[in-house]
Amino acid sequence: MKHTISELEDIASQVRRDVLRMVHAVQSGHPGASLGCADFFTALYYEVLNHSPKFTMDGTGEDLFFLSNGHISPVWYSVLARSGYFEVSELATFRKLDSRLQGHPTTHEGLPGIRVASGSLGQGLSVAIGAALTKKLNNDKGLIYTLQGDGELQEGQNWEAFMFAPFHKVDNLIASIDYNGQQIDGPTEKVLSLENLQAKFEAFGWHVITSDGNDMEQIVKALHYAKSLTGKGKPILNLMSTQMGYGVDFMVGTHKWHGSAPSDAQLAVALSQLKETLGDY
Amino acid sequence: MKKYTYTEKKDTRSGFGAGLHEAGKRNENVVALCADLKGSLKMDDFANDFPERFVQVGIAEANMMGIAAGMTIGGKIPFTGTFANFSTGRVYDQIRQSIAYSGKNVKICASHAGLTLGEDGATHQILEDIGLMKMLPGMTVINPCDYNQTKAATLAIMEHEGPVYLRFGRPVIPVFTPADQKFEIGKAWMVNEGTDVTIIATGHMVWRAIEAGEKLAELGIDAEIINIHTIKPLDEEAILKSVKKTGCVVTCEEHNKYGGLGESVARLLTTELPTPQEFVAVNDSFGESATPDQLMTKYKLDPADIVAAAQKVIKRKA
User: Fold this and answer.
1) What does CATH list as the number for A5-272?
2) Which CATH class is domain B189-312?
3) pTM
């Protein structure tokens, strides 16, 4: 371990503060799943990924991460900045004119750490599979990690990709699902039920593991375990339960904070629940 | 009128297949992806000789476009192959976000464009693809005119950094451009110098424009014929130079008149040099089942239609 669990939890707390302050500053953005995935992003970038903040598009020899549910950009931007891809002060430009921190992540403005645009849902896994195939052709041992929302799985392109990866033995790929059961219009169970996701992925030929994405110790363990399963002929799927809005008591477990910004008073209450550990930007 | 002859007829899709095979030999970073149309796209030689660099995606075009975008990360040059309809309209958002907006070096290669795939009918005869693709910022759009030009274009786009849409087709048509030609993206090809009217043609319509030029010559009309194989970026200099001389223009394309080459030329001329223009193109319609020749006649894309348009536009000159 590069960090103790307690150190990682402290980083995640700062990341959650960043997320809330970024979204509050422009009164727009998606705090709910950003908070829910703060532990995953922290574990991934601080503990699991073999990566360099001296970013290159090709990332030769490195592990690569792709975010398919691009609307949770605040959490990604915070973790990228906190791990040295760009200045933390740049977080203050989020969603503002001429910023590299667009509402949804993009390569277009040249922000280090981003390798493809995402926002229109359902496209990230296909792109990740392509990058994984190129790693294999180049005999590059780096791994490919992805994150997708669960509501996003309603997009059909995902299932084309879920079918492709096992058939083509894309076993350098670890796909995580943010399984929070919420989407814009309400619980996934009511909008369009995902039914038995684990059984679906297993039927498609993935090696499925499950984890609690809001338990730092578990998520670190799960990602290391997933890594140990690579190179064995199957892609790995981490079905990761999280709670939307995790870390702030009045935001947790509801779709209402999917795409809404906190007021001044709500921000103050939320920040009082999250330790400032690395200094606010 | 300069004399053009041919000794054989071939399909432009075979020019693509030959070009792709050659590209695979020249550059080991070239990879090819196909959505269950390997034979129709003439990708067999590439797939047989470079099996590790050929990806059969199955009938899943959206996934194919995403995989192609991802394969560029690490330096591959992906060529995707399927029909024009499934290369554009079906996957527009995947191309827009994962390829064009993300600036990925993907070559979208599209066969069976236009009416001339024939009997399969309108579900497969896309006439809107040039418009869809030229509207994407940073996208290069190329529609070559015969086997040799398609092969040369396929090799040229391998060298070009950035997303490209390469459009070609199914019918067997005359091979009249040189086998050893150098294809320059964005450079018009002067087919015939003339003084009375400029005929600008792309794709399968270039040979038809030559046939129309011969007929016009018999009628005493000296037509300048320009092949615009690259619709975006448009060779504005060549078009303006010609139109300054002739004072009128006919554009010819196997595409809807909305959104195609004709509108690109009209936009240029309206801004720089207002000029009478006639459009030989499909008049805002879907196609239908029939033989390619029957369709080209019914939808007014024959040499006779180009001749009539030229006569009409000459009368409109001030």
Assistant:
1) 3.40.50.970
2) alpha beta
3) 0.97
